[in-house]
Design brief:
alpha+beta; 296 residues; globular; 13 strands; single chain
Length: 296
Amino acid sequence: MTEPLLRTVDLLGEQWMLLILQSVFLRVRRYDDIRVRLGISPTALSSRLAEAVRVGVLERVPYQSVNRVRHEYRLTEHGLALWQLLISMWTWERDWAVDRRIMLPDLVHIDCGQSTAAPLGCRDCGQRVWLSAVRAQRREPLLFFPAPAGVFAARTTPGWPPTRCFSSPPPWNCSAIAGPSACWPGLSLARGTFPNSSATSASSRVCFGGRLARLVELGVMRTAAATTRADARAYDLTAKGRAFFPTLAFIADWSRTRYPDTPPALTLTHRGHRFVPALLCHHCHTLLQRSRVHPH
């Protein structure tokens, strides 16, 4: 897997990886503290920490514990750059996961002292951006093939830790994103029709169709009969699906900056220029900075 977006989805479209990164952002950095906070098994935690270090989003830093040296995990520059992605997921869940078990805290902008919804904006022009204002340019067919099995085994730990940021119950959680996310970017930017001739095999069409069905089940897409062929289905995003676009924009942008030597298959543009997503404060209309926001 060499395409930046697919590499990023394979890493971040996994429930425990996101929760581990969120824990480190909240300064829970030591192995035992992370394990207790998330209720994750030692094997699962060790494998994900090792992968996060390998891809360069976390680094191991030594510290003295009693009479021996141990290590804690800290975010690298690439890891710190994920803060907007985590907040966009947080915002989406707060607004759309109405059946979540606990209330999510507000996000406060320190500069103006107001709770903010952190809407999506353009870093270049500083204006708020909606999905309809962004264009997608695809260099080659990208997202119509079965996704790889991934580097992690399926989660077997029952239940969900009560302190997690992404607190909605199944079916919408990080694992639900992991399966269908490989077809999300192309579908989120234009109306799609299935079956699609760019699928190269029956198995890839079956896999792609299963992901589309999952997105419809989750309420982020709706389907109707297509006008092109009697056996085809047309798919559109619902309001719930369109609201998830900021998360996808941050995934695409992070993949481009994390793997700058590999040309991306998907490029987002806004007003004729490459779209660099950012979060805004909807009160004072300024770009949010990582050190100037906090949960409350």
